[in-house]
Amino acid sequence: MTNALYSELFGVHSGQKSPFIFSPDGTIVTYEDFIKLGSRYAHVLNRLGLVPGDRLLVQIEKSPQALALYAACIQTGIIFLPLNPAYAAEELTYFVKDSEPSLVVCDANSPLVHDSHADLLDARVETLNQNGSGSLTAETKGMPSRYQTVARSSDDLVALLYTSGTTGRPKGAMLTQENLLSNAHVLKKLWAFESSDVLLHALPIFHSHGLFVATNVTLLSGGLLIFLPKFDREEIIKYIPMATAMMGVPTFYTRLLNSPDLTKELTRNMRLFVSGSAPLLAETHKQFEQRTGHSILERYGLTETSMNTSNPYSGERRPGTVGFPLPGIEVKITDTWTGQKVSPGEIGQIEIRGPNVCKGYWRRPNQTAKEFQPDGFFITGDLGKVDSDGFLHIEGRNKDLIISGGYNVYPKEIELFLDRQPGVLESVVIGVPHSDFGEAVVGLLVPNKNANPDLSAITSAASVFLARYKHPKKLLVVKALPRNTMGKVQKNVLRAEYNKLFN
Ligand code: AMP
Q1: Ligand 1 centroid to residue 277 C-alpha, Å
Q2: Domain boundary at 131, 152, 173, which?
Q3: Backbone CA torsion sign across 430, 432, 437, 441
Q4: pTM of the full predicted structure?
Q5: How far is the CA of 382 from the centre of ligand 1 (A)?
């Protein structure tokens, strides 16, 4: 037995002097140095008593060292559990209790180091700061730069990634060697990544998008990462001419469009812009293409499955859709109540089957049984439809479905209508309690700069374009929409805020 994930992502590059990570402070880490660093961390983890299958919970800022810790976990068979640095100490208590890590690694400024959190005391705490310093790095001094990679099978766990928890408590998705490796291979091939690629990496590395999609594809192809700590528009503009590809969330693109520096000339060297993790407005897609000549490639994935579908690399990339199933992955649209396949073009729940689907939720057999079906299909919780050309359209989350007066209302359909109205930059539609209808449709509109959308004109237009039961009972203008770090609109926050609008 070998350790396929380690050998294919890292092992193949050992001794390679080509650059792997470029940081904005000008430092470059070569593949060779990166692998040595990972191996030193691997020795440290073992010395601290961690063995294969143990969990390493990391809550640290993005850095090459943080990524080397990911490599160390794969090499040692320790399960990597990265968390958003924004989580507060109280929230961490939940993750620590749920995952029972053998070691917690955090920033030296973390409250975990300074405050006494009784619930966390069971786990040992070491530090790793954004500049690479900290107690964990100090322990690597004198450690050998070679490590005997631990054998793992395709079914062994590599990472526990907690879902973002916009609907209920976060659950730990158990991702295996096969899940990650199969997805990396498929994406590398489909998106044509080569060792000559330079990927502009401004995503966080505690989430599937930045950690697996962006990083694993680059590792597999032997390319270079321009590793930015976070999205900063001016920094992106500065580095675009040196890059060939970028992966981002929709807000990256809307923010870039607000810069006069975004031009065809600036993006001349780029061959690919990818968007995902939240819906990209068709309008953003079009504007970006007009401005730069590049058609953004939108894809669809989840923490539990990594990537499922993608618009094509060669061929039409259809705005407002997430493309076709990836090779080896099946997509099925089913009726929410009966579980039977719906007719082509109808909206239903999206189910996924393939080597990318994770093993289930950590220590949640009931939830796992509910969402991971015996025939191998995983119920994503997303609603979608496949158009006559086979493109998948995401129509919102199952939990966001509004039932008004007994009718199903799919928010996405109304959002698309509202987005088209004059003066509207973007919109979101939620259902709020209503004594008569059960739930009432409410539309929240974010206006374009200096615009003042005419709400009564929009209401009149609704009567032409939408069936009566879909008409928003109320339209409200808001400055901005609450979003999480991955750019997802937090509908749960809005539903709580407008809960009493009608009652
Ligand atoms: P996460 O587990 O944080 O990656 O969130 C996964 C969810 O993000 C999916 O279930 C979708 O609701 C949403 N999502 C991901 N990619 C897209 C996309 N391209 N368009 C619309 N929604 C998306």
Answers
A1: 4
A2: 152
A3: negative
A4: 0.90
A5: 8
